[in-house]
Each structure stands twice: as C-alpha cells, then as structure tokens.
Amino acid sequence: MTENTPYQQLTRTFQRLSRFSHLAAIAGWDMFAMMPRAGVARGEALAELGVLQHQILTDKKVGQWLQEARQQDLNDVEQANLREMQRQYDQAALLPESPVEAKSLAGSRCEHARRSQRPANDWTGFADNLREVVRLSRQEAQIRADARGGSRYDALLDIFEPDMTSARLDSLFADLKSWLPSLLSQAVEKQAKQTLIAPQGPFPIAEQRELGLQAMRILGFDFDGGRLDISAHPFCGGVPGMCASPPATTKTTCSALCSA
After folding, report:
1. According to a count of CB atoms within 10 Å of the terminal CB, is the N or C end of the chain lower?
2. Which of 135, 137, 129, 9 is nearest to 63 (CA)?
3. Which residues, in sequence order, are bridge partners of residue 229?
4. DSSP state of 162
5. By C-alpha distance, which of 55, 85, 87 is closest to 158?
C-alpha cells in the first residue's frame, strides 16, 4: 500500500489526533491533581485544544478520505480501523465548534470551583456551575438526537457505549433484578454474623499514600510508567506509556485505596 492512499492519509490524521489527546490527558491530569486553585487558565487552554481536535476531525478532507478508503482493498484490521474512524467522524461532525468549546469550559470551571465550594459546604454555588454543565449537555444531546433519531439519553449513551440503547439496558437490569436482591440478602445475613472492625478516621495523608503504594506494588503497578499523586477527589486516569496515576484523597482510607 502506497503512502498517499486515502487510508494512509486517515491513519496519519488520526495519529495526530491521538497525540493531541495524549497531550490533553496529561494537561487534564495535571489540572485535577497538581494545579493550584488560581490555575483556571488551564481549562481555557484545554478547551482551545479540544476545538483544534474538532477542527481536524471534521475537516472536509477527512470525510472525502473516508468515502474513498471504502473502495480500497483493506485487510480485516484496516477495515476495523476505518469503521472506528468513520464513527468518530460522524459523532464529531454533528456538533459545531461553539458548543464543544463551551461545554469544555463549563466543565473545567465547575470542577475547579468545586474544590473550594465543597469544603465551604457551598452547594448553592456548585449548583449554579453544574446547571450550566447540564444545560450544555442537554443541548448536545438534543443535537445528536435530532440527527440520529431516538431519545436524548440514547444519543449520549451511544458515545460511551456504542450501539447500546436504553431498551437494551432495561433488559439487562431486568435480569439483574431477578437474582441480585436475593444475593444481597444472603450477603447481608452472612455479614451480620461477623464482627465489624470499622476504621476510625480521619487518617494522615502520608499514611493513606503509603497504603495506596503498597496496594499498587501488590498489583504489579509499573512505577516507571506512572505515579501516585494527591488530588481533591479520587480518580484514576492517564494515557498509555505515560502517567496512569491514581490519587489519594484526604478524607477516607477506603476512597484512597480504591483509587489506587
């Protein structure tokens, strides 16, 4: 296969997008785990990067290459790649740039403000920020639903779980409801016969961190490829080959250990 076929053009374009996503993941991790409270400009930078990725992905040339690549003699792996490229293009092409940028900014502002609002018990202020995130998410859902048909929920669900629908979820949960309650009752009955040793916190951050490190060593975590950071709330993330580091929380040992 020559280097200038439509498929190869697509491969180079999506490789470029992958590198931008790699950079966004690192910057996002730093914002969540290391950024001081006054570092709100990071959200604006990430929103700008998101717009750039959207522009690259929705370029008319990408749509043309996708059409032309379908006429090529591709092997099974290349056909699978092309199918996923087409899916990403179709999802992105539904949205104009402005809501992409607005949603990214709103999410960053909401998370950043939460760091001071949560310890201050300022749920009213948090609700104001969250309200804008919800509004923009509903706007996106409506745009996608209008284009593909179906409900707004299914339109968003398809992004995170391709081809899943609320009808299929109803069927899955109906099956769970048929046997899970009895299993939970058995577990509760068994636990009632055992003595509970409840940990009494709060616990020093340094000790939580050491507990997390010990758990990570037992699980075989590659410390040459990742690290453990401390953040405002527990989460795990990163990019392949880079920092896939879970944080410790200052509140509970359980949350810190689970994040590790």
Report:
1. N
2. 9
3. 247
4. T
5. 87
Query: CA-to-CA distance for 136 and 143, rounded, in angstroms?
Result: 11
Cα distance between residue 1 and residue 8, in whole Å: 8
- Residue carrying the six token digits 């990570």: 216
Structure tokens at 166: 């609320």
- Among the listed residues 47, 38, 44, the one whose alpha carbon sits nearest the alpha carbon of residue 112: 38
What's the full length of the chain, in residues?
A: 260
3, 194, 227 from 184: Cα distances, Å:
58, 16, 36
Local structure of residue 240 (DSSP, 8 states) = T
Q: What angle do CA 65, 69, 72 make, to 5 degrees?
A: 150
Q: Which of 46-50, 102-106, 172-176, 228-232 has the highest mean pLDDT?
A: 172-176
| Chain centroid, CA 215 distance in Å | 24
State pLDDT tens for residues 104-163: 999 888 888 888 898 899 999 999 999 999 999 999 999 999 999 999 999 999 999 999
Most confident of 63-72, 185-194, 207-216, 243-252: 63-72
